[in-house]
Amino acid sequence: MSPTAKIVDPAEFVQSFTATKYKEGIEVWRDAETPADLIFALRTLKAPKAAYAEISAALAEEVLPAFEKKYPCDLRPRKAVEAAKAWIKNRTAANARAAEEASNDAWHAADYATDATLMMVANDGAADAASAAYNAAAVASAAYPIFNACHVEGDYTIYAIYGTVDAAKTGIPNQRILDTIKEVGYRYFSFLKPS
Predict the structure, then answer these.
(1) Is the separation of the CB atoms in 146 and 77 below 8 Å?
(2) Residue 140: count of CB within 10 angstroms of its CB
(3) Of 44, 77, 153, 195, which has the fewest beta carbons less than 10 angstroms from its beta carbon?
């Protein structure tokens, strides 16, 4: 080793790298114009999976009325949201299993709604039915990140939350999506709130 070479302390390097990433996350959050920007900032700040489950449940809850108007007897998406909220409040194995089962049921509800809509559109061009199916897909898509938050390691939850946000755009104004993500972000990272 040369006499001028500096040995890097691994702890110092990690601390410096982490501080740089946090600074980047904060800057992206403050300059965010899209839901994707906010999700990227949360990912950079290492938000816990429960934050993504909360965002998913909140967005799904926003589109539930449109789904329930079209399918008033189908409570599977609502049960998925309730199960997710139970897991968020109390992260037990039993609540994770309940959230997983309810999430799977919500997916089946979306499949049914989508199939029924395609048949209606083919028969009489019912545009409002197509809108209800998109809302059903938004509700059901929330099930995937909720399930992943409960069970899966890795980045699958992150990718799924992007899908949830995209699906939610069919039934929720963009500003409301931004506000929902920010509300959750502030609960996990209070320093993100504007002063």
Answers:
(1) no
(2) 29
(3) 195
**Cα–Cα nearest to 145, from 75, 93, 87, 74:** 87
Tell me if 140 sits within 8 A of 107, measured CB to CB: yes
Work out the angle between the directed axes of helices 143-151 and 49-70 (0-180°, nearest 10).
150
DSSP state at residue 28: H
CB atoms within 10 A of CB 114: 17
**Phi, psi dihedrals of residue 80, rounded to the nearest 5°:** -65, -40
Tokens read off for 121: 């559109």
Instruction: Kindly report, residue by residue over 117-148, the tens digit of the pLDDT.
Output: 555 555 555 555 556 555 555 555 555 555 55
Q: Are 171 and 62 in contact (CB under 8 A)?
A: yes
Under 8 Å between Cβ of 98 and 86 = yes
3-state secondary structure 32-46: CCCHHHHHHHHHHCC
Cβ atoms of 53 and 84 within 8 Å: the answer is yes
pTM: 0.76
Closest by CA to 182, choosing from 27, 42, 8, 14, is 42
Q: Locate all alpha helices (DSSP H) within 32-91, ordered by sequence.
A: 35-44, 49-70, 76-89
Task: Determine the straight-line distance between the first and last CA of the chain, rounded to whole angstroms.
Answer: 49
Q: What is the pLDDT of residues 63-73, one digit of tens each?
A: 788 778 778 88
* Domain extents in the chain: 49-190
